[in-house]
Design goal:
alpha/beta; Rossmann fold; 8 strands; 34% helix; globular
Length: 238
């Protein structure tokens, strides 16, 4: 069944063109060949009939990017993160990936010690048991104790996780990796050479943080919470 992608805008929306360009670029990368259904909303009556919470609105597989809490119908401009008039690219990627239903999601960074380990733990806590979740690194080391502590604070036990290289992921007998999320920001991320959907979510490396123990832990919490937000959009019910 073809993937349904809808863009709903008002005629005078100042962000319609940029939202459409972002949507087209992201869809072409993750779901090439998918058509985008563009709907022009003409007034308050249309807004109510279409349950339109503002312009621009994007729906993937019938679901608003923000899920059921998108807001009441309104013939008005819409605001996303930090008051922006277009949604963040990561949110669009997460919702598209959700609709594409990967069977094996892999998180990559260099050391597989902090960001990718926290992403693995959070994803396992959110994803259905039918989805295989892995993490790996190009230079695996050990799971950072602060990553384990940050996950413990939100009820996730990651004590059994360990750093792995990409070859080990290929040898596990799991389904083929069909989606990869790289998390490196300052470093050169490892490249997955297999065929897969690719997302790049550059997040700062909390393992590089300095200062007191509390300050370092706070860096891990910040990255953990951002991963939780993004993976919540990927796995939580719409």
């Amino acid at each position: 069944m073809p993937l349904s992608v809808q863009l709903l805008v008002t005629a005078d929306c100042p962000h319609a063109a940029s939202a459409e360009a972002l949507l087209r670029r992201t869809v072409d990368r993750l779901a090439p060949g998918t058509e985008i259904e563009r709907t022009l909303v003409h007034g308050a009556g249309d807004a109510g009939r279409l349950a339109f919470p503002g312009s621009p609105t994007i729906r993937i597989a019938g679901e608003d990017l923000l899920g059921p809490d998108a807001g009441a119908p309104a013939y008005a401009c819409r605001r996303y993160d930090d008051g922006a008039g277009v949604p963040p690219e990561w949110l669009l990627e997460a919702r598209l990936l959700r609709a594409l239903a990967p069977q094996h999601l892999l998180f990559l960074c260099v050391a597989n010690s902090a960001r990718s380990q926290m992403a693995e733990g959070i994803a396992r806590s959110l994803a259905s048991c039918s989805i295989w979740i892995s993490s790996a690194g190009s230079e695996p080391s050990r799971v950072n104790p602060f990553a384990i502590r940050a996950l413990e604070e939100i009820g996730i036990d990651a004590a059994g996780q360990r750093s792995k290289d990409m070859e080990e992921v290929r040898r596990t007998g799991a389904p083929d990796v069909d989606a990869v999320v790289t998390l490196c920001a300052e470093e050169v991320c490892p490249a997955w050479l297999g065929e897969a959907l690719r997302l790049h979510w550059p997040l700062p490396d909390p393992a590089a943080a300095s200062g007191s123990e509390d300050e370092i832990l706070e860096s891990f919490r910040s990255v953990r919470d951002e991963l939780r937000r993004r993976l919540g959009a990927l796995f939580a019910p719409g």
